[in-house]
Amino acid sequence: MPIECKDVSFTYAPATAYEIHALKNINLRIEDHEFIGIIGHTGSGKSTLIQHFNALIQPTSGTILYNGEDIWGQNYNRRTLRSEVGLAFQYPEHQLFENDVLSDVCFGPMNQGLTREEAEPEARKALLQVGFKEKNFLKSPFELSGGQKKRAAIAGVLAMNPKILILDEPTAGLDPRGRDNILDQIAELQSVRGITIILVSHSMEDIAKYTRRLIVMNQGEVVYDDAPHEVFSHYEELEKMGLAAPQVTYLMNGLKKRGLPVDLKADTVAEASKSILKALREVDSPLLKEGGSHV
Amino acid sequence: MGIIKALGLVFDYLKYDEEGNVEDTQRAIDDVSLDIEEGDFIAILGHNGSGKSTLAKHMNALLLPTEGTMWVEGIDTSKEEKLWRIRQKAGMVFQNPDNQIIASVVEEDVGFGPENMGIPTEKIWKRVDDSLKAVGMLSYRNHSPNRLSGGQKQRVAIAGVMAMRPKCIVLDEPTAMLDPIGRREVLDAVHELNREAGVTVILITHYMEEAIEADKVFVMDNGKVVMQGSPREVFSQVETLKSYRLDVPQVTELAYELSQAGVKLPQGILTIEELEEALCR
Ligand SMILES: Nc1ncnc2c1ncn2[C@@H]1O[C@H](COP(=O)(O)OP(=O)(O)OP(=O)(O)O)[C@@H](O)[C@H]1O
Ligand SMILES: Nc1ncnc2c1ncn2[C@@H]1O[C@H](COP(=O)(O)OP(=O)(O)O)[C@@H](O)[C@H]1O
Ligand SMILES: [Mg+2]
Ligand SMILES: [Mg+2]
């Protein structure tokens, strides 16, 4: 089910002294099965934009279409929309309010009409998927560490089996293994179940590794919408917008300047490793001599 | 004894039933001993739930040990009459930039701490100036905090702590919510405080790259400190770190993969420049 934004603008507190033009004339089309990244400086409008996708925010002007239908049209069923387009919030506190974690995660599916008995298996599955330990299922959300809360909040959205999954900085505050595990799980949902994923992130490394299309927001506008390695080739412009490229991109550019014929498109560790090995062979580097034995 | 010292520190979170009896306990710190030198820049790493925040809260007496002792500048934190002195010696900055700022103007927010401490007004303004300057936010003194970027808000929060002139500042994932430049700004500000003002810094983070600039790295696992050493010592142990659910900076990982594939590289490469240098020799 594609989502389309047509000339979407949004203003917080219009016609007051606190007026903020958070989105300016956004035009976008998100196709089925995409894995899209959104990056932008804090305050660039990322969270505001994605809340438009499941009708939590109504645009000040412009139209949002879901599967070709205007989601703010008369008689449009936004309840169904919200259960198909799942949004995991940036701050898990905004999402956790039940007595225990399991009940919290059951809340979404029960809201979709499941009984508690039917919801629980979905909830358990989702919690385990994000690496939440079974021994903590019955804890109060207040007794969790920061990263544990984040996991519970993501599970709450997964349990609703959305068709489109939007994650607002899902890995902020997660430990490195947790971050990789959750993103691997999400990538699998995308490739196996064909879910569309929209990932908002400040980690350029994660964006490079997982997404295939990258949207860059700057001061309420979309400034790039392209393949990640294309976007990262503009790293100097990105820095002016409060962003950066992955460490690997800087390394590859540095190596190229020093004359090593590496591929500047490589923006992940795996790609860089391959490209550097190839380049070292091409220049017959002494670093590969003595049979290339393991160190 | 260093500025922060823990000996046999244990902390249990208690869960009470309706009658107020302890129903359950959760051990969050399990026999931790450490000694931090004044002026050091320390990074603490560890998986989610490993006890980092719980340990940090002991450093300014927000939590008191279940067993063992924590000293801040030689003062035992469990001595209740010293609570205020301890809070002034070790300031805390947390993750979420939006939850830490109270006043509606930047300079008022920064002055709030010293005012509460009973510092005379003229001196408060001097402190506000000094602290805002130290984090590069002096020109924003009359701004409204809610119009600042995340990185700017965090720097104001740090200035607020600095205005109390602590000897030590504990930052619990201060950059987790920030964009790359915001992260850089906050880190630069903290390093500057450490270098220029000699403030001891304890930085909790999940970004491995932020730890490479520390003097010393502690790694926590299930309530225990399981590794400590210089960044180079710690990050050269790629497999051990992974077993604790952690990672190494991206360039370190790449250097490790290349050497596994037979490229002769020195161990423990931490920065882009080091790897470039090593590959283009
Ligand atoms: N208020 C609380 N009540 C009960 N248990 C708690 C409380 N806060 C934390 N815990 C538990 O104590 C342990 C350590 O938590 P702590 O918050 O110190 O971890 P952390 O290392 O800071 O994790 P993170 O990286 O996720 O922030 C965890 O098992 C957690 O569930
Ligand atoms: N609830 C709100 N009320 C008023 N202004 C807001 C609100 N939420 C966000 N803003 C403002 O809108 C702009 C975009 O914010 P946001 O969408 O949260 O950006 P991002 O998610 O990219 O950090 C910022 O200037 C921010 O201060
Ligand atoms: Mg946001
Ligand atoms: Mg914590």
- β-strand number of chain B: 10
Bound molecules: adenosine-5'-triphosphate, adenosine-5'-diphosphate, magnesium ion
Mind telling me the CATH superfamily name of chain B? P-loop containing nucleotide triphosphate hydrolases
Strand tally of chain A: 10
Order of helices and strands of chain A: EEEHEEHEHHHEHEHEEHHHH
Overall helicity of chain B: 25-40%
Classify the fold: give the CATH topology of chain B: Rossmann fold
Give the mean pLDDT of chain B: 92
Largest interface: A-B, 57 and 52 residues
Q: Name the strands of the widest sheet of chain B in spatial order.
A: 6-7-8-3-9-10
Please tally the helical runs of chain A, counting DSSP H or I stretches of 4 or more residues: 11
Please work out how many helical segments of chain B DSSP would assign: 11
**Which spans of chain B of ≥5 residues are poorly predicted at pLDDT below 50?**
none
Task: Please give a structural write-up.
The complex is a heterodimer of chains A (295) and B (281). Chain A is of the alpha/beta class. Chain A has helices at residues 46-53, 78-84, 101-111, 116-129, 146-158, 176-192, 204-210, 228-232, 235-240, 247-257, 269-282; strands at 3-12, 20-30, 35-40, 61-66, 69-70, 85-88, 164-168, 196-200, 213-218, 221-226. Chain A has 11 helices and 10 strands. In chain A, the strands form 2 sheets. Chain A has a 6-stranded mixed β-sheet, sandwiched between helices. Chain A starts with a strand and ends in a 13-residue tail after the last helix. Chain B has one domain: Rossmann fold, CATH 3.40.50.300. Helix content of chain B is 37%, strand content 24%. Chain B contains 11 helices and 10 strands. Chain B has helices spanning 52-59, 83-89, 106-116, 121-134, 150-162, 180-196, 208-211, 231-235, 238-243, 250-260, 272-279; strands at 4-16, 22-36, 41-46, 67-72, 75-76, 90-93, 168-172, 200-204, 216-221, 224-229. In chain B, helix 3 runs parallel beside helix 5 (150-162), helix 4 crosses helix 5 and helix 5 (150-162) runs parallel beside helix 6. The model of chain B has no long low-confidence stretch (mean pLDDT 92). The complex binds adenosine-5'-triphosphate, adenosine-5'-diphosphate and magnesium ion (2 copies).
